[in-house]
Each structure stands twice: as structure tokens, then as C-alpha cells.
Amino acid sequence: xxxxxxxxxxxxxxxxxxxxxxxxxxxxxRNYDSRKSVDVYEEHHKLPGIFKGLSKQNIECxxxxxxxxxxxxxxxxxxxxxxxxxxxxxxxxxxxFIRNIEWHNLHESVMKMSLEEYQGLPKNRNLQTRYxxxxxxxxxxxxxxxxxxxxxxxxxxGLTEKFDASLFLMKEMFNWKQVAYQKYNVTKKRRxxxxxxxxxxxxxxxxxxxxxxxxxxAKELLAKRIRALDPLSAYRLKRFERKHQQGFHGKRDR
Length: 254
Prior knowledge:
By secondary structure, the protein is an alpha/beta fold. It has one domain (10-245): P-loop containing nucleotide triphosphate hydrolases (Rossmann fold), CATH 3.40.50. Helices cover 44% and strands 10% of the residues. It has eleven helices and five strands, in the order E-H-E-H-E-E-H-H-H-H-H-E-H-H-H-H. The chain has a five-stranded parallel sheet. The longest helix has 19 residues, at 209-227. It is globular, with a radius of gyration of 18 Å. Mean pLDDT is 90; it is low at 249-254. This is BH3370 protein. One of its GO terms (molecular function) is sulfotransferase activity. Pfam families: Sulfotransfer_2. InterPro entries: Golvesin-related_Golgi (IPR053259), P-loop_NTPase (IPR027417), Sulfotransferase (IPR005331).
């Protein structure tokens, strides 16, 4: 696998909410000097001031709920990674996660909402596509621009449902040595998709059409990356996945 153009760059982990990003964040932290690794979880309007300061520091890694585009604040090469998730499952997971976490800033308001009400909020529609587009989605047709961004600006686009394969590609790309992990930010006491009415699932899907299209594109990107592995790397991937399936990893987030 070719990692010559990425391992020395500033790594930007675009952490999508409820996609397995907290687990990935913990893994990444163990592979970078803590003095050169920064977490940024702030409202988007505050990011320009924050990144103007970071750009002057010797930063190697930035992680957070960041929109695409923050690389423009750096005068050094940067590399993005992210994890995407089935959009319908992501919305369901986020709803129950917030309801289960009393310290969450949205807990009180979400406790008063049904899943149907929550999924209908504008902020929950096509969230993943909006992150990739830099925070705005004015038309569903803009998903093609989001696809091009994933293809041309992200070293690895992982999938929650293929966490171990995604992690393998990342560790190879960036020469990570410490990749054992446990599950963080698990959504407990949540209903599965099978327990939710087909009509509501259809509504969630309708409100996330761009995300569904982007997710399908990301699935194919990942599949192509895996198919392109040389025989030795393909063998090592299977061995890596097998170890994790046997409990080597502990747990990961849902």
C-alpha cells in the first residue's frame, strides 16, 4: 500500500457524529505525540479563529466534528480521513444516544421528542453530506460534488459497518502501531431498525437521500481499495479482521 504521500501530512480526522468516530479518535491519539495532536469540538462559526492559531503550531493531527475545508488554514500538506455510516441507522443511533446521556446538551429537548420528530429536524437531514460539503447543502444534486471531495481529498473513507477493514487501511497508510481498541460511546437501550415501523424508516430515508447516495458511493470506494490490495496485504487484512472478530479488539462503538 502506498503511504508515501500521506504519513508526513497533517492528519485531519473529520469525525461524523455516531459513526464510530470516538473509537477511531482514541486509536489515533495513541499514535501521535499528545503535544502535537488537538481535538476541536466547537461550533462551526468559531473554527476560523481556532484554526488560525493552530496553523502556526507544529500540529500533526486534528480531530473533531469538523466540516471539510479546514485544511485551507494550514500552509502545510494535509490529509483527511473519515468514517461514514448507514444514514438511517446513524439517525436512529444518535436519537437514542442523546436520550441516554443526561450530560448531553440536547438531552432535555430530545427527551421531549419522538424519533419521528427528531429525524425531521433540518439539522438531522443529510448530515454526512453537509459535513463533506463544508457545512452547507443547498440542493440534493450537490451530492456529486461531495463524492468528488471524498474521492480526491480523503486518504481513506471508512465505514462503521466495515470498521476493522477501514482501520486496517488507515494503519497501513499512516504507519500506526497501536490499533487495539475498545468500544466507546455505545448507544444503549436503542431500538433496532427491525423494531421501527417501515413507514418511519421510509421517512428517515427520504430525509437523507443525499446521505444514502453518498454512503453507497463510499461503500464502493472502500470495496475498490480492498480489491486493489496486493496478495500479501489482502492476507494481512483477513488476519487482522479475524483477530478482531475473535475478541482481540475488545469492543467498539455502535
